[in-house]
Amino acid sequence: MYILNLSPKLVSIQEAAEFLGVAPQTLRRWESEGKLLPNEPTAGGRRRYDLALLQPDQFHAPEKIGRTIAAYAHVSSHDQKDDLEGQKQVLELFCAPGKAGHSS
Predict the structure, then answer these.
(1) Does 2 reside within a domain?
(2) Is 3 part of any domain?
(3) Do 71 and 100 lie in a common domain?
């Protein structure tokens, strides 16, 4: 015999925020904007969200296409031109698509 539990899994604002990949303050702002309302506040007024109804991609903006990344390198004198070239190479690698510093 199988027992099906249809009770919602209610989580705190902290747990809901972690699940959605945002800060709890963001959920509070979304609530004030009417974008996402708590499912069942507690008697003490704490927000509770049904984990099954939260959709992580629902509130995130689509990735920007053609985003420009600016990087800056500087040396103090002309004698450090080689250092500048090394900085440039590091920045180019850091900003390259799919690399550690570039988030796409």
Answers:
(1) no
(2) no
(3) yes
pLDDT category of residue 82 using cuts at 50, 70 and 90: confident
Which residues, in sequence order, are bridge partners of residue 41? none
d(CA 22, CA 32): 16
List, as own/partner pairs, every contact residues 44-50 make where C-beta atoms lie below 8 angstroms and the sequence separation is at least 24, other chains included: 46/12, 46/13, 47/12, 47/13, 47/16, 48/10, 48/11, 48/12, 49/10, 49/11, 49/12, 49/13, 49/15, 49/16, 50/8, 50/9, 50/10
Q: What is the mean pLDDT of residues 32-51?
A: 86
C-alpha to C-alpha distance for 48 and 17, rounded to whole angstroms: 11
pTM for this entry:
0.51
Q: Read off the CATH number of the domain in which 16 is found.
A: 1.10.1660.10
Question: For the chain, how many structural domains are there in total?
Answer: 2
Task: Say if residue 47 is in the same domain as residue 67.
Answer: no
Q: What is the mean pLDDT of the chain?
A: 79
